[in-house]
TrEMBL record:
<protein>
    <submittedName>
        <fullName>Cbb3-type cytochrome oxidase assembly protein CcoS</fullName>
    </submittedName>
</protein>
<keyword id="KW-0812">Transmembrane</keyword>
<dbReference type="InterPro" id="IPR004714">
    <property type="entry name" value="Cyt_oxidase_maturation_cbb3"/>
</dbReference>
<dbReference type="Pfam" id="PF03597">
    <property type="entry name" value="FixS"/>
</dbReference>
<keyword id="KW-0472">Membrane</keyword>
<keyword id="KW-1133">Transmembrane helix</keyword>
<feature type="transmembrane region" description="Helical">
    <location>
        <begin position="6"/>
        <end position="27"/>
    </location>
</feature>
Length: 45
């Protein structure tokens, strides 16, 4: 039971870090042009 006092706050911090990383990627434009990047690997240089 004592381990829950460590694991619950640790999981909350980890979830907040994941949400912050996703928010950072969205606001930096990481997911703006998905179609272009998918087609880029098929083109010849």
């Amino acid at each position: 039971m004592d381990i829950l006092y460590l694991l619950v706050p640790l999981s909350v911090v980890l979830a907040l870090l994941v949400i912050a990383a996703l928010g950072w990627a969205i606001f930096r434009g990481q997911f703006d042009d998905l179609e272009r990047e998918g087609a880029r690997i098929l083109e010849n240089d």
